[in-house]
Amino acid sequence: FHSWYIDVMTKMSWKNMFIMMTVQKIIPMMIITYTFVKSNKMMLFIVTAMNVLISSMMILNQTSMKKIMTISSINQM
């Protein structure tokens, strides 16, 4: 699911990469705040747990610092 994001981020400059990693968290946080927290906490937990597991497995074999930072950013979403 996030493989396109990793490819895009590794081709960006460090400055643009950090801006993108910050901006891409704003809309999901707004959606979570207004939707999931009020209605379905179990669904939020399942989505979060799956995201943490998948991104943790993806980071194990990485040697590129940009890829590590990108996967870590995905994990923090």
TrEMBL record:
The GO cellular component terms are: mitochondrial inner membrane
Q: How does it sit in the membrane?
A: Multi-pass membrane protein
Kindly list the residue ranges recorded as spanning the membrane. 18-36, 42-60
Compartments where located: Mitochondrion inner membrane
> In Gene Ontology terms, what is a biological process of this protein?
mitochondrial electron transport, NADH to ubiquinone
State whether keyword Membrane applies.
Answer: yes
Q: Which residues form the NADH:quinone oxidoreductase/Mrp antiporter transmembrane domain?
A: 1-77
EC number(s): the record gives: 7.1.1.2
What are the protein's UniProt keywords? Electron transport, Membrane, Mitochondrion, Mitochondrion inner membrane, NAD, Respiratory chain, Translocase, Transmembrane, Transmembrane helix, Transport, Ubiquinone
Q: Which reaction does it catalyse?
A: a ubiquinone + NADH + 5 H(+)(in) = a ubiquinol + NAD(+) + 4 H(+)(out)
Which domain of life does the UniProt lineage start with?
Answer: Eukaryota
Q: Which InterPro entries match?
A: Complex_I_Subunit_2, ND/Mrp_TM
* GO molecular function (one): NADH dehydrogenase (ubiquinone) activity
Pfam families listed in its UniProt record: Proton_antipo_M (PF00361)
Biological function? Core subunit of the mitochondrial membrane respiratory chain NADH dehydrogenase (Complex I) that is believed to belong to the minimal assembly required for catalysis. Complex I functions in the transfer of electrons from NADH to the respiratory chain. The immediate electron acceptor for the enzyme is believed to be ubiquinone.
The UniProt entry's sequence similarity note says: Belongs to the complex I subunit 2 family.
Would you tell me the protein name for this molecule? NADH-ubiquinone oxidoreductase chain 2
**Native organism:** Pycnogonum litorale
